[in-house]
Amino acid sequence: MTRPLIHIFGGTSDSRQICAMMDIAGIDYGLSVATPAGAQQAMGIRGEIVTGRMEAEEMAEYLQKRGTKMVIDASHPYAERLSQNIVSACQKLGVPLVRYLRPSEIDAVEHPLIHKVATIEKACEIAAQLGTRILLTTGSKQLADYVTHLKGKTVLARVLPTAEVLAMCESCGLSVDQILALKGPFSADFNRAFYQFCQADVVVTKESGEQGGFREKVAPCLSLGLPCIVLCRPNHRFAGEGITEANGLEDVAQLLASFPNK
């Protein structure tokens, strides 16, 4: 069995597009995803799928054992700890790392209804001032933090429909009326109807870019006159010896074109 020359970390739609590019180029690769849901969404790729979270030491051991020649970090833009672990593992082994950067659309949206913030605490502070029914489209990972900072408010969470995520919602004290389990991507029309159905006073989202349907989430807020709070991406950039940044899929394609699949 051929050992993957490249290992990709990330359960995002971007990472799956990178996998498709590798399939076309005939490059051997593996893909790491955190959850079974991520593995399910990646079904159909030709590369090996590895499921489960790894710390830096585990990553280094795995990559060394597999003889990996390059790593691509295509994880979610907000997964700072994961990216830090990947950097540590690659630098320990001296393996080249490509940090994929999802193109940002944050500067394309300016409106009095849009509130750009850097922290969850600030997002909650503003949301609490603007309304009672607060719709989160930020995923489940930091749901507990939002619930903690929004005590006394009706928190509505749009999350993935998996047993693990639903259990997390319940552990945060959310009732069946507050859990909205759906899988995107969603169109602007769908989001508009969804916001109305939820009777949301405020929508909280992330700067997820085109791949995450950022504009499709923001535009309905503006048409409905709903305040939209955007949690901006972390400013931390991972730089150092052996680390290359790829700004978008075109940059990744150029890197792969020069990669020897031998």
UniProtKB/TrEMBL annotation:
GO biological process: cobalamin biosynthetic process
InterPro entries documented for this protein: Precorrin-6x_reduct
PANTHER family linked to this entry: COBALT-PRECORRIN-6A REDUCTASE
Keyword line: Cobalamin biosynthesis, Oxidoreductase
Record-linked Pfam families: CbiJ
Protein's pathway: Cofactor biosynthesis; adenosylcobalamin biosynthesis
Species of provenance: Xenorhabdus ishibashii
Name the UniProt record assigns to this protein: Cobalt-precorrin-6A reductase
One Gene Ontology term of the molecular function aspect: precorrin-6A reductase activity
NCBIfam families xrefs: precor6x_red, PRK08057.1-1
Taxonomy, superkingdom: Bacteria
